[in-house]
Design goal:
The protein is of the alpha+beta class and 239 residues long. It has 10 helices and 10 strands. α9 packs parallel to α10. One of its GO terms (molecular function) is transferase activity.
Length: 239
Amino acid sequence: MIKNIHCLPDLAKKYKVVVKENSERYRSGFDVFCLENNIDYIDDKKNLGFGENNNLIFKYIQDKFNPKDNDLFIVLNPDVLITCEEIEKIISLHDQYHFKLAGINLFTDENFTIHDKGIRHYPVLSDFFKSFFLGKNDTVINRKEVNDIAYVDWLAGSFMIFEVSHYANLKGFDERYFMYCEDIDICYRSTKKNIKPLYLPMVKAVHYAQYNNRKIFSRHFFWHIKSILIFTIKKMIIK
């Protein structure tokens, strides 16, 4: 997917890009691809969850590049396409607003007409089940109504922007989740530290999303159920 989208090689011409290998299926030849495109490649032969992978990458960046506290650490899914020009917008906006956690305007098509479900209100337990079994999601914010920079509850984990110091202060993602809800959790913990996520509607990217958690009784479905329970319990504890 990374090879097909060809986003990272372009980004790596201007920025530090680090990829964590997480699948035997795609491992063959990918290290060479990264080497040829100036991409740092991590392969520790372990299939880790979303949060643990990103925490590992963050630690790698700290050790190798010694970033400044106000440098930006961007969590970028392999199925997201963004240009260097949009990254430059992010840097310019960070210089202006000094945000510590932010997200962007994600679309599911390259014409930027169909919005991804990238910003939402915090869910309650019933919202998860309505989404699964009724196909109704009351947490999604209509982004056509949000044209200016705004604080939101929850940003999609497919593209999250952190100041290095803030990610470190949050101790990264909670690794008890394997997949799903890590983004809700870290946004919630950030808000509890009086730092709400900021939505940047003028920055656009494409998210070729695949929602495998919709398949009932698949492993993705069970990962999602487990994550829902973890977040619900944590939210009851962290007041």
